[in-house]
Amino acid sequence: QVPPGRCSLFDPVFSTRELAALARLGLRLLPENEEGKHGVEGSGTLFYMVHCGKALYNNLLWRNWSLGALSKVVIIGNSFKGMEERLLSRILERDYSYIAKALKGMEEVALPAHPRYLDTFNDTSVHWFPLPKLKELSPEVWDFVEEPTYKECDDLEIIRKEDSADGHSPTAAE
């Protein structure tokens, strides 16, 4: 059991009513839009990121791009292998380089599809990054840790910090 106070949440489209309800439940609300750049701070962390844009996953990987941090990350979200299959490799490497690099150092298991929601949760997987597998990656993979900018990205799906003054925008849509 994880105590509610150790569960952090953020969605830029939470309404004021949703924020109040979550706070009453004792959940920790992140004060600003980190654009997925949330660090694990040395402890194992589960990220529930269903239906997020690729940039959020890429930002999360960038922020935790080290053997010690990445090995503590578990992500429930869109399939990275599916992203690899659907994108041209040059686009994946240019726009989402941390996803591209992480593919060889991760394990992924698809969650079973629910017959009622085949079109909604059909691409959801659990991803984790076993330390022995990460250690097999070439040392050069860990050297380049430039923050992603997405200047050439045509399909950017992210609500940026600057899109709302307080980080919580109940009218923003992805």
From TrEMBL:
Entry's Gene Ontology cellular component terms: cytoplasm; nucleus
Q: Name one Pfam family in it.
A: SRR1
Q: Where is the SRR1-like domain?
A: 6-128
Origin superkingdom: Eukaryota
Family assignment from sequence similarity = Belongs to the SRR1 family.
Protein name listed in UniProt: SRR1L protein
Give the originating organism: Aramus guarauna (Limpkin)
Gene of origin? Srrd
